Amino acid sequence: MRTRITDLLKIEYPIICGGMFRVGRAPLAAAVSEAGGLGIITSATFEKPEDLRQEIRRAKKITAKPIAVNINLFPSVRKMPNEAYIDVLIEEGIRIVETSGRSPEAYMKVLKDNGVIVIHKVAGVKYAKTAERVGCDAVTVIGFEAGGHPGMEEVGNVVLVPQTVDAVQIPVLAGGGIADGRGMTAMLALGAEGVVMGTRFLATQEAQVHDNVKQWMVQASERDTSLIQKTIGTTSRVARNEVALQVLEAESRGAELEELLPLISGRRVVQVYEEGNIDAGIFSCGQSVGRIQGIPTVKELITDMVSEAKQTADKLGRISNVINA
User: Fold this and answer.
1) DSSP state, 67?
2) If we measure between CA atoms, which residue out of 222, 230, 296, 232 comes closest to residue 258?
């Protein structure tokens, strides 16, 4: 499976595990890379840059293949500046970075001066154009279906991906709603050169989250997610649990950020991921949860995806014959 993304990143398959808060750690990231995709360690998980350094070293003990680091540029309460984390990843030999949250323009010089490939995650065409203009090597466009922050516009990937492909020259990755080989083939058919998945990788054996979360995902349907925080301009798709419903109720009566903060605090996700209390806090979850039917190893997941993608491509070939008949 060769695309401009596999050539750019020197990976076997155009499958990327996107950055996930508290989940993007060495075991998962290294397993994805070792299986032929690209795993990403999420810097926002770590309070101190030195903690990120140790996590990178843990990953390198598991795999010698390329791994990446996510740098979320959205303002946060973290005391250490992003520059400190960038210094660490460069010192540790990381040469692929996924940026998200805001334009990476302010960091492009130091990244490019050190030979770092930059993949920027965006929620719309105009942001993809900006990413290309400031020098990003590739862009991930996130559709309405995605877990996490899909942006304010409710546009799905069937529309968003080809629009983005037509608007920029750099390779486009598709994120949101993808959990299997059929979904990947569909995105490739729309012009994407790879896929980014988060939700599907959350339900794998290597993901360091409580089994209760994974079992909930297996039982969940595509209707078991909600869009919250739209009223405060930071739309997020999360699991539809008790806390998410509380947030929606508060937003429906005009609650402001101060009232919402105790509910949407990232600290509460620790109880979800580590203790298995599904209703303890909000946690990102995309509509692709409806496609999850088991908890495989990362290698099993990627192998099955590639096999199914090839079968789907063969089927498309037969459809082509019908169209051209």
Assistant:
1) E
2) 232
More confident residue, 151 or 6: 6
The whole-number average pLDDT for the span 17-44 is 97
pLDDT at 151: 85
Enumerate the β-bridge partners of residue 138: 119
Which amino acid is present at 212? N
| Domain shared by 146 and 279, yes or no | no
- 243 and 196 within one domain: no
Which H or E run contains 195? strand 195-197
pLDDT at site 322: 66
d(CA 20, CA 40): 8
238: phi then psi, degrees, rounded to nearest 5: -135, 170
Establish if 214 belongs to a structural domain: no
Residue with tokens 């030979």: 115
Residue 69 CB-density burial (10 A; 0-12 exposed, 13-18 middle, 19+ buried):
buried
Helices (DSSP H) in 139-241: which residue ranges?
157-167, 181-189, 199-202, 211-219
| Predicted TM-score of the model (pTM) | 0.95
Please give the tally of structural domains in the chain.
2
Q: Which amino acid is at 202?
A: L
Q: Is 171 helix (H, G, I), strand (E, B) or coil?
A: coil
* Domain carrying residue 9: 4-208
Same domain? For 119 and 258 the reply is no
CB 24 within 8 A of CB 45: yes
